[in-house]
């Protein structure tokens, strides 16, 4: 008779130091690791594939506090030499021209820059545009094959956010059609010695040329839209060239790829819970609350971008050196059992649902209302117009993107009976 060793609990398991955040098992399901980290403490040293080391905040209360901690700044100038040696991967002059957007600014500069974009994304304006967004979603579904299989990323999830964003910010249709989704990959770390570096730099140059074309078009054909207002502010000297180019860069990348990824993570969650999928399909009135739960359950923004202390500081009992990067795990916070009952259960009736999928504090996502509307429209349209919608590959064959900060998949093969 063999005597079995008792199973090791999450709290007892020893974590490596630093904790590597990489590899297929981690990207396909990071939640068991996040559970171990939460149980062991709120702050942990971690290692990313690029070699960057950081301090990861995991629990809900500690994450909420870090997102509102005015000691933690976002400006890259705060980073120390250890961080800069690995993390400042975007070469000059592109780094200086494209990395001074809202996510990398602190007050008062952040406050001044943010006021230029908030009016475009107000809940009231989003609701006014909702019928147009529905038209866009229906047109994309109309173009899908009459019966499955189909790839819902290339056929819908990667195109819908681009078309919506163009409507919201005033990107002309001909320019929107030429936006290359691969340009969004410039936010994924590719070190100077990586074999993929030439392709990375080619994407970077292509995106920068595209932004210059957008600016030139808006200067010649200005209108009452966000892009035109940004270019006009630059011409008046209220914003620098780098600030405008960076803000357009942020709009084009952060305004599309996370929504694409969130559509895929939401669909995968529903495929894994067919009873919930059927319930949502049969009762569209559940969509607003369901979207909040899907955002909590598996957020496309897995981790925040860098934050830095300007002096050695205590972070929830851990001494963090000045200029080291501090990153908040939004996904780990959103599965914290101390804040959410049965956090690993997809509960479409969960209320209240104070998830952190859009961050918190002064850097709360300005496009949150738009993203919520896009997700409601996307899921509602796909579930009602594609009867029998199901995953057309094995769950274990889903290829999760290797992005450091985000979750999603570049391909989502599905089957369905017909297009209604």
Task: Write structural notes for this entry.
The chain is of the alpha+beta class and about 425 residues long. The protein has a single domain (about 20-415), classed as Cytochrome P450 (Cytochrome p450, Orthogonal Bundle). The protein is about 45% helix and about 10% strand. The chain has 18 helices and eleven strands. The protein has helices at about 25-30, 30-40, 60-65, 80-85, 95-100, 110-115, 125-140, 150-155, 160-170, 175, 195-220, 225-235, 240-255, 255-270, 275-280, 285-295, 330-335, 370-385, and strands spanning about 20, 45, 55, 70-75, 150, 305-310, 315, 320, 325-330, 390, 415. Strands 1-2-3-9-6-4 form a six-stranded mixed β-sheet. Helix 7 (about 125-140) packs antiparallel against helix 9 (about 160-170) and helix 11 packs across helix 12 (about 225-235).
Helix content range: 40-55%
CATH architectural label: Orthogonal Bundle
Q: Given this structure, which CATH class is correct?
A: Mainly Alpha
How many angstroms does the end-to-end distance come to? 61 Å
**What would you call the structural class?**
alpha+beta
Query: Got a strand count?
Result: 11
What name is given to the CATH topology? Cytochrome p450
Q: Which strand order spans the largest sheet, edge to edge or round the barrel?
A: 1-2-3-9-6-4
Number of domains: 1
Question: Could you describe the largest sheet, including whether it forms a barrel?
Answer: 6 strands, mixed
Write down the overall geometry.
globular
**Total number of helical segments?**
18
- Oligomeric state of the chains present here: single chain
Radius of gyration computed on alpha carbons: 22 Å
Query: How large is the share of residues in beta strands?
Result: 5-15%
Within CATH, the superfamily carries the name Cytochrome P450
Average pLDDT, all residues: 91
The low-confidence parts are 1-12
The succession of helices and strands, N to C, reads: EHHEEHEHHHHEHHHHHHHHHEEEEHHEE
InterPro entries: Cyt_P450, Cyt_P450_B, Cyt_P450_CS, Cyt_P450_sf
Protein name: Cytochrome P450
GO molecular function, one term: oxidoreductase activity, acting on paired donors, with incorporation or reduction of molecular oxygen
Keywords: Heme, Iron, Metal-binding, Monooxygenase, Oxidoreductase
């Amino acid at each position: 008779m063999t005597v079995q060793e008792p199973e090791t609990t999450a709290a007892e398991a020893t974590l490596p130091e630093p904790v590597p955040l990489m590899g297929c098992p981690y990207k396909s399901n990071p939640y068991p690791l996040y559970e171990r980290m939460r149980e062991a403490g709120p702050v942990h040293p971690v290692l990313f594939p690029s070699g960057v080391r950081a301090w990861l905040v995991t629990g809900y209360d500690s994450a909420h506090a870090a997102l509102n901690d005015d000691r933690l700044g976002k400006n890259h100038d705060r980073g120390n030499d250890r961080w800069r040696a690995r993390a400042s991967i975007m070469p000059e002059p592109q780094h200086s021209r494209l990395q001074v957007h809202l996510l990398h600014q602190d007050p008062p500069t952040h406050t001044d820059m943010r006021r230029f974009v908030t009016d475009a994304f107000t809940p009231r304006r989003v609701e006014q545009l909702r019928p147009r967004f529905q038209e866009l979603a229906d047109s994309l579904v109309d173009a899908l094959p009459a019966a499955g299989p189909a790839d819902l990323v290339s056929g819908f999830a990667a195109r819908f956010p681009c078309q919506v964003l163009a409507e919201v910010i005033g990107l002309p249709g001909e320019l929107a059609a030429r936006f290359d989704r691969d340009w969004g990959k410039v936010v994924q770390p590719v070190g100077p010695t990586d074999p993929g570096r030439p392709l990375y730099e080619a994407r970077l140059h292509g995106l920068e040329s595209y932004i210059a074309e957008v600016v030139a078009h808006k200067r010649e054909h200005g209108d009452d839209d966000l892009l035109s207002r940004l270019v006009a502010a630059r011409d008046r000297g209220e914003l620098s060239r780098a600030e405008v180019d960076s803000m357009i860069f942020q709009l084009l990348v952060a305004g599309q790829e996370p929504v694409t990824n969130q559509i895929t993570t939401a669909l995968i969650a529903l495929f894994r819970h067919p009873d919930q999928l059927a319930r949502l399909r049969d009762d569209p009135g559940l969509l607003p609350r369901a979207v909040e739960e899907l955002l909590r359950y598996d957020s496309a923004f897995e981790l925040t971008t860098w934050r830095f202390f300007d002096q050695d500081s205590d972070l929830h009992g851990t001494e963090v050196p000045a200029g080291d990067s501090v990153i908040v795990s939004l996904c780990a916070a959103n599965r914290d059992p101390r804040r959410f009952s049965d956090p690993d259960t997809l509960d479409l009736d969960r209320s209240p649902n104070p998830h952190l999928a859009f961050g918190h504090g002064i850097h709360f996502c300005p496009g949150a209302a738009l993203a919520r509307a896009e997700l409601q429209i996307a899921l509602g349209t796909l579930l009602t117009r594609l009867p029998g919608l199901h995953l057309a590959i094995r769950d274990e064959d889903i290829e999760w993107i290797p992005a450091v900060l985000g979750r999603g998949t570049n391909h989502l093969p599905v089957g369905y009976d017909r297009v209604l």
